[in-house]
Amino acid sequence: MDHSSLAGRIFRGIALSLVLVFFMFPIVWILLMSFQTNEQILRIPPRILFEPTLANYEALISGQLRTAAGNLQIEFMRNLMNSFVLSSASVILALLLGVPAAYAFARFKFKLGETIAFTLLSFRFAPPLLVLLPLSLYYQQLGLNDTYFGIVWVYQLIALPLILWIVRGYFEDISPDIEHAYRLAGHSWREAFTRIAVPLAGPGIAAAGLLSFIFCWNNFVFALILASADKQPVTVGALAFVTASGIQYGQIAAAIVLSVTPTLLLALYAQRYLVEGLSLGAVKG
Amino acid sequence: MLSIHNVDKIYHSRGKPDVHAVRALDMEVKKGEIVALLGSSGCGKTSTLRMIAGFESVTSGSIALAQRAIHDLPPAKRKVAMAFEGYSLYPPLTVRENIAFALKAQQLSRAEIARRVDEIARLVEIEDILDHHPRALSGGQQQRVSLARALVRDADLYLLDEPMGQLEPQLRAVLRGRIKGLLAERGMTAIFVTHDQTEASALADRIAVMEDGVLQQFAGERELKNRPANLFVASFIGEPPMNLLDTAVTPEESGFRLSAGSDLAFHISLQTLDVMAQQTLAQAQQIKVGIRPQRIAIGTGESRLRVVSNQWLGDQSHVAGECAGHLVVAVTQGKVAARPGDVVPCTLDARHLHIFGADGVCVRHAEAR
Q1: Which chain A residue lies closest to B12 (C-alpha atoms)?
Q2: From CA A68, how far away is CA A63, in angstroms rounded?
Q3: How far apart are CA B178 and CA B365, in angstroms?
Q4: Between chains, do B53 and A200 touch, taking CB under 8 Å as contact?
């Protein structure tokens, strides 16, 4: 590093800035937009300097959307809450089901094992709309349409394969002999699973959980079809800003900022696990 | 104490032929005995160990430990301790905790656990790393911790998989002695897997030689050397390996003449052969004989050895040469003044010959001494 020439260092600085701008600009622009009125946003050319307003946030939090055509009721805060409930419940359920399943796939060879694992993964291959059509018919018959449980269930299509395949790799990286040593000392395989295997695969489980939380949070189409207004997450709720009197860019930007914040905070908090989990691989015996 | 009866292990895997790892294994280990499972890799020794520990099921047969049939019990109920080849220490815990961990299930007082950990740590020389985490240790240190974790427990049987493979030679010799002392003092029964003959001879009371899933011979070190059961044991045990020669058999008055070449022939007297050996020789035209390098005398005798190489190892000479068309190795205690190309006299005495039947079974052993 220290030996590089001045030109090299300048070039690296420019390259880094380019990458940074490429990735950060949209986020920064959204943040700026969220403090502007629709008129300020649509002004050409756009300005970096403006008088910030909190009106967008105020509208979202109070649920009153003032447009040229009159006042509109929006349920943004409820949508945010829905997103939170649906994503958390889905990830918890997927962890409860997926982690033991991942362990089974990693440790035991059984008939059709690979086939089942691959089938679970293949849920991710099919276009969601293809799955949704028959699913919505079944859901209507079963009475699962427009229920939290129904949506959490369908979110398993997103979360479960992800957790299963990521965590399985972590379990496979742990030497089975570590568990064997524990079991020889007088413990059952169940204890070996909960006390040895799960803690050792912890970073991997955290990473998989976080990723599937983000995927569930960002899902749009499942909830669009299967949920009505009071159960919709933010992704669907944001449609409300496309109103008869135009698109409310300011509110959309504020809504994006608010809906990104929880996942961003979670990711920042779990960054340590994420980096360790996704790059290093699990502990070797 | 441990009795393994007619155990078979077959690994099935889809799309591949079955692997018959252990075949019809019968073995009795007495209480307080130290047994080595010796063989090259893939001979079934580790499979055997893991079947005793309970990580592999037996395909057929039975295993009993202290009069309890254990082959269907989960590992936790077998009262077996094991040191793994890959160490398998628990990474989040320190060395001390790793060793104490093994004692948790025994419900001992805290003071007693500490006393035992310290005692075993002294024995394998890891007192100074007790508070380190496994990741910070070298392979040899981890191996000693793994050994300590197994030996610290109260178990009916101790299984050690390549227990000293990673240690430096001096330390290995010291630890061998100490561990043998500990096992003997407490009357512990142990089985260990190794591919190192020296280690097997140094540590074990009896050695089970395995090859291709079959127990070839189960005996003490001296017996394996002097009375090998078959061609495999004869060539596997001993350093350098036994010289094997093909000979032509011709019946003679009061015995047989085994001719290994133009100027190398042996007279085997009938008196030194039992009935089976006599039959084998009477029916054979060709037969394999073996002679230990230590039994070939250099410098005297009728036969001629054309020297190919002559190495002085500091305490013995290894002389390799060509004798009647066969490459043989001789070991002598003193230096031999011969250069490659020289021809020296040598003696291969018929009394020192092991004779192997066509199926490899040794039908006559060399006379001891």
Answers
A1: A109
A2: 16
A3: 35
A4: no
- Whether residue B249 sits in one domain with residue B110: no
Domains, chain A, with CATH or none: 6-73 (no CATH), 76-283 (1.10.3720.10)
A187 close contact with B: CB closer than 8 A: yes
The total of other beta-carbon atoms located within 10 Å of residue A138's CB is: 11
Instruction: Give tens-digit pLDDT for B57-103.
Output: 999 999 999 889 998 998 888 889 999 988 888 888 899 988 988 78
What backbone torsions phi and psi does residue B162 show, to the nearest 5 degrees? 45, 60
Picking from B227, B257, B291, the residue at the C-terminal end of a domain is B227
Q: Which helix (H) or strand (E) holds B309?
A: strand B297-312
Tokens (6 digits) for B203:
């540590």
Please give the residue range of the domain that contains residue B270: 243-364
Angle in degrees, CA A131, A137, A139, rounded to 5: 90
In a domain, B175, yes or no: yes
Q: Given B227, B262, B280, which residue is the final one in a domain?
A: B227
Task: Please give, rounded to a whole number of angstroms, the shortest distance from the CA of A273 to a CA of chain B.
Answer: 15
Rounded to an integer, what distance in angstroms lies between the CA atom of residue A176 and that of residue A172?
8
Q: How far is B88 from chain A (nearest CA, A)?
A: 5
By the CB < 8 Å criterion, does A229 face chain B? no
At A40-63, the pLDDT tens digits run: 888 888 777 788 888 888 888 887
CA atoms within 13 A on the CB side of A144: 13
In this prediction, does ipTM exceed 0.90?
no
